[in-house]
Write a structure and sequence with these properties.
The chain has four helices and 21 strands. The protein is of the alpha+beta class. It folds into three domains: about 190 residues, Elongation Factor Tu (Ef-tu), domain 3, CATH 2.40.30; about 60 residues, Beta Barrel (OB fold (Dihydrolipoamide Acetyltransferase, E2P)); about 100 residues. Helix 2 packs antiparallel against helix 3. It is elongated, with a radius of gyration of 47 Å. It comes from Roseomonas nitratireducens.
Length: about 400
């Protein structure tokens, strides 16, 4: 082998080694996820959990205190207006001990004596009235003949009117004494006849509906006003959604709502009926106090589509706050902060180029672009913090 050939082989080996080193240490493309900037409908919406509830709910309560009998109605039963739904027995009279019984007997005796006294007073008042009327009649005859002055006649007539008033007061006093005697006798009679049948009070349905929930199933003694059962029409449902007050200010009555994850094959359509004006405080799972407000949603779909949906079911509500047609859209995962504005990485010929982006509207999943990006361009989703402008990228598999 000649010297020239040897030198050529060495040079070739050196060049091959240098080329391998350059190829080995050359920066490799960064694998990234990408998405395309599109043009379409931009929607800003609020997503929260909701609960279904019957719009018109009637709570049937006990009108009087007593012992409610076991209810025969069950959840789901249909009732007509005026149907008997519960029976309440008046509480039995308290048992009297020997001392209390003796006091009741003496109270009856005292009431009888008061009644007799009132009768005597009525007789006395009647006699006085008759005498006063006779005196007044005689005085009128004397005054007519001029044998008596007019002043004596006036005094006689006044005495007659006073006697009549006394007679009326005595009769009313006797009437009150009769009631007191009846009351004393009733108390003693209830103690002497504890086995008598108690009074029964019927509770009837105020409307034609279905039984939603039986609140008092077993026979028990209840107080006046205690709830017994709930009535309502399960077909007339609404959805109650509690949202943050900062999000509720953008919700308007009539806004479209998509009811999702309710158990059916397709979302249900709804409309916002009311945003309640009063907020309430709720502690989140992280222990943070939040101010929230109730948003009431009417279901638009016919009851046949949601026949299995009942009262108190959990659903997901997506309330549309704003909708703009023919907007340039970009996923929010492609945006990141750069100073006071927003930026995104655009893929051009396998190279990431950082570009400032002007955002007109921003929602939970997408944003509407006012400048910086054009439909059809490819942006990088969730760019890593190590990615720099000009770096080579490749689509992750």
């Amino acid at each position: 082998m000649g010297p020239n050939l040897r030198r050529a082989l060495v040079a070739a080996a050196v060049l091959l080694a240098a080329g391998g080193a350059v190829f080995a240490f050359r920066p490799r493309p960064v694998p990234v996820e990408t998405a395309e900037v599109t043009r379409g409908r931009f929607e800003a919406f609020v997503e929260e959990d909701g609960r279904t509830r019957v719009r018109d709910r009637y709570v049937v309560s006990a009108p009087v205190a007593g012992q409610v009998l076991r209810l025969g109605a069950r959840a789901g039963d249909a009732v007509a207006r005026g149907d008997l739904v519960a029976e309440i027995l008046a509480p039995p009279a308290a048992l009297l001990g020997p001392r209390a019984r003796r006091e009741a007997e003496e109270r009856v005796g005292a009431a009888e004596a008061m009644l007799q006294q009132a009768g005597v007073l009525v007789e006395r008042a009647a006699a006085q009235r008759a005498q006063a009327e006779a005196d007044a009649a005689r005085m009128r005859e004397l005054q007519a003949r001029g044998a008596a002055p007019l002043q004596q006649l006036e005094r006689a007539e006044l005495a007659g009117r006073t006697a009549a008033r006394d007679m009326l007061a005595a009769e009313r006093r006797r009437h009150a004494a009769e009631h007191e005697l009846d009351q004393a006798r009733a108390l003693l009679a209830s103690a002497e006849a504890p086995g008598s049948a108690p009074e029964r009070h019927d509770v009837r349905a105020p409307v034609a509906a279905r039984v939603l929930r039986v609140l008092q199933e077993s026979e028990a003694v209840v107080a006046a006003g205690a709830p017994l059962l709930e009535l309502g029409d399960p077909a007339e449902l609404e959805v109650a959604v509690d949202v943050l007050t900062t999000e509720a200010v953008g919700i308007r009555p009539g806004a479209p709502v998509a009811i999702e994850r309710w158990g059916g094959p397709a979302p249900l359509e709804g409309r916002v009926r009311r945003v309640e004006p009063g907020a309430f405080t709720r502690v989140s799972a992280l222990g943070v106090e939040e101010q929230r407000v109730w948003v009431l949603v009417d279901l638009v779909d016919p009851p046949e589509r949601r026949a299995a949906l009942g009262d108190g079911f959990r659903v997901d509500a997506r309330i549309t706050v704003e909708a703009i047609e023919d907007a340039v859209l970009v996923p929010v995962g492609a945006l990141f902060r750069r100073g006071a504005g927003w930026a995104a990485f655009v893929v051009q010929d396998g190279v990431a180029r950082e570009r400032g982006v002007e955002i007109a509207r921003r929602a939970a999943r997408g944003a509407m672009v006012a400048g910086g990006l054009a439909p059809g361009e490819t942006v990088i989703l969730f760019p890593p913090s190590t990615l720099r402008d000009g770096a080579r990228v490749s689509r992750a598999r």
